Every structure is written in structure tokens, then in C-alpha cells.
UniProtKB/TrEMBL annotation:
<dbReference type="GO" id="GO:0008967">
    <property type="term" value="F:phosphoglycolate phosphatase activity"/>
</dbReference>
<dbReference type="GO" id="GO:0005829">
    <property type="term" value="C:cytosol"/>
</dbReference>
<dbReference type="InterPro" id="IPR023214">
    <property type="entry name" value="HAD_sf"/>
</dbReference>
<comment type="pathway">
    <text>Organic acid metabolism; glycolate biosynthesis; glycolate from 2-phosphoglycolate: step 1/1.</text>
</comment>
<dbReference type="InterPro" id="IPR036412">
    <property type="entry name" value="HAD-like_sf"/>
</dbReference>
<dbReference type="InterPro" id="IPR050155">
    <property type="entry name" value="HAD-like_hydrolase_sf"/>
</dbReference>
<comment type="similarity">
    <text>Belongs to the HAD-like hydrolase superfamily. CbbY/CbbZ/Gph/YieH family.</text>
</comment>
<dbReference type="Pfam" id="PF13419">
    <property type="entry name" value="HAD_2"/>
</dbReference>
<dbReference type="InterPro" id="IPR041492">
    <property type="entry name" value="HAD_2"/>
</dbReference>
<dbReference type="GO" id="GO:0006281">
    <property type="term" value="P:DNA repair"/>
</dbReference>
<protein>
    <recommendedName>
        <fullName>phosphoglycolate phosphatase</fullName>
        <ecNumber>3.1.3.18</ecNumber>
    </recommendedName>
</protein>
<dbReference type="InterPro" id="IPR023198">
    <property type="entry name" value="PGP-like_dom2"/>
</dbReference>
Length: 219
């Protein structure tokens, strides 16, 4: 039985853009990809369910300032990551780097008020959590993911949560999730905002027409 309705269609359409929401058929016909109650729905966290970029930057900048006495500038077009820390401070020692990361995680808790939910995607999560198996799939470590979900009241809308595990080597979060859940890729609809992760999902067999690209340019 199909579970989607016109109201939800409009939410998804606005959230992700038409080209990835429809499957292009022969000629100019478009077929809406219906989600049935047999599908698993994979939701990314950062940038998809919740915009955490500014809170993440503030936490890193405060940690770097405290540990190294260095000021860093905010770039709204680039997510500040552990890799960025090593790029802007190439001579940082492992010990100092770990201290920065530890302080960043501590500061993040007080910066949670700077995170914002994506209303359209959260609405989809809440509705489908009643009929489908909804799965959090994130490269975020468990502690930060859990406090982010709890802050926004989202923790109870998931059938399963899959966090970053180390070491994963070259295994993508999508390959890891499919292996853990023991399900075929064709049974998955994925909500994702990162282009690299979208390609990783395609690489493990999730149909591109079932990857709903949140905030990603369709051009």
C-alpha cells in the first residue's frame, strides 16, 4: 500500500527539487517514485535533518582559540571539519589535535541552540516513522549525534541509528548500513545532502532515483 499523499509530496518537492524526486522516463513523462511500507528510509543528520554547520564552526573556533590562541574565520560555504583543522594548522601535533577535538566536543553542547532543524525533512521522518523502518545513518560520532537528536526531540523517530565507527577504512556509511541491516540496496530511499555521500550510495546499488538530495544543486 502506498503511504504518500499530496501534502507530503509538496514538502519533499520543495525540500529536494524536482529532478531528483522524479524518475525521468521516455520522452517528457515523469513517474513519481512512490515509497511503500516495505522501504527502509535512510536519513543523514548534518545538513539533512539538522543544520549544524554554524554550531560546529563555533565549537571548533572556540576550541582552537582556547588551545592554540588562534582565531579562525567562518566560511558559510565550507563545513569546518577535523580535516580542515589539519589543513589550516599543518604542523599541529597529534596530542594538540586531540585536545582541540576534545574541547570542540565539549563546546558543542553549549552551541546546540545554534543548530536548526530542516522542517520539511523532519516532517517526512515523523510521518514515515509510523509506517516504515527509518534509519539514522551518519558519519557523526554517537555522542554528538545523540545530543543533537535529543535537543530537537528526534531520537524516538528511528527504528535504528548507525553512527560513525572507526576504523571503517574505505567502507562508506551506506555500505556499512546495508551490511549491518542485511537488506538489499533497492529497498532503500536515502535522504542526503552531501554529493560525495550521494555517489557512495549509488556505488553500493541504491537507485539514484531513490536518493533524495536535500539542498543539492540538480544542475
Amino acid at each position: 500500500m502506498y503511504k504518500i499523499n499530496k501534502e507530503l509530496h509538496d514538502y519533499i518537492y520543495r525540500a529536494i527539487g524536482a529532478k531528483y524526486y522524479y524518475n525521468r522516463q521516455v520522452g517528457d513523462n515523469f513517474k513519481f517514485m512512490k515509497i511503500t511500507d516495505t522501504h527502509f528510509l535512510f536519513f543523514d543528520l548534518d545538513g539533512t535533518l539538522v543544520d549544524t554547520d554554524y554550531a560546529n564552526f563555533l565549537s571548533y573556533s572556540e576550541a582552537i582559540k582556547q588551545v592554540l590562541g588562534i582565531n579562525v574565520d567562518y566560511n558559510p560555504n565550507v563545513r569546518f571539519t577535523r580535516e580542515i583543522v589539519k589543513k589550516i594548522i599543518p604542523n599541529i601535533t597529534d596530542k594538540t589535535y586531540e585536545k582541540v577535538v576534545k574541547q570542540k566536543n565539549s563546546f558543542y553542547k553549549k552551541n546546540l541552540s545554534m543548530t536548526k532543524i530542516n522542517d520539511s525533512i523532519v516532517k517526512i521522518l515523523k510521518q514515515y516513522s509510523e509506517t516504515n523502518k527509518t534509519v539514522l545513518i551518519t558519519n557523526c560520532h554517537a555522542e554528538r549525534a545523540i545530543i543533537t537528536l535529543d535537543y530537537h526531540g528526534l531520537s524516538n523517530f528511528f527504528y535504528h541509528k548507525i553512527f560513525r565507527q572507526e576504523p571503517l577504512g574505505n567502507i562508506s556509511k551506506y555500505k556499512n548500513a546495508l551490511d549491518l541491516l542485511r537488506i538489499p540496496a533497492k529497498c532503500v530511499f536515502a535522504f542526503e545532502n552531501d554529493k560525495t555521500e550521494i555517489e557512495a550510495a549509488v556505488a553500493v546499488g541504491i537507485p539514484r532515483c531513490q536518493i533524495l538530495c536535500v539542498g543539492v544543486s540538480n544542475e
